[in-house]
């Protein structure tokens, strides 16, 4: 998980949730018309399920959290 406050790894996430880490768009996918720009690696990060829910709520409020790359 690329959230600086989280330390969940891919293997831990699969073990806990039986699924891979989630892909999150830093700029909301619905706000970016061009598919190449929308899915540019600079616009994508991986997050665990819990962080992804939190980041989506922050995005809905217009906030963009710090990213750990």
Task: Explain how this protein is built.
This protein has 69 residues and is an alpha+beta fold. It is 35% helix and 12% strand. It is globular, with a radius of gyration of 12 Å. The termini are close together. The mean pLDDT is 91.
* Overall pLDDT level: 91
Proportion in β-strands: 5-15%
Q: Give the low-pLDDT segments.
A: none
Order of helices and strands: HEHEH
Helix content: 25-40%
**Nearest-angstrom radius of gyration?**
12 Å
Shape: globular
Oligomerization state: single chain
- How do the strands line up in the largest sheet? 1-2
Number of helices: 3
Number of strands: 2
Structural class: alpha+beta
Span between termini:
10 Å
Instruction: Let me know the largest β-sheet.
Output: 2 strands, antiparallel
Tell me the layout of helices and strands.
Elements: H1 10-17, E1 22-25, H2 35-38, E2 44-47, H3 49-60
List keywords for this structure.
globular; about 10% strand; alpha+beta; about 70 residues; single chain; two-stranded antiparallel ribbon; about 35% helix
Short description:
With 69 residues, the chain is an alpha+beta fold. Helix content is 35%, strand content 12%.
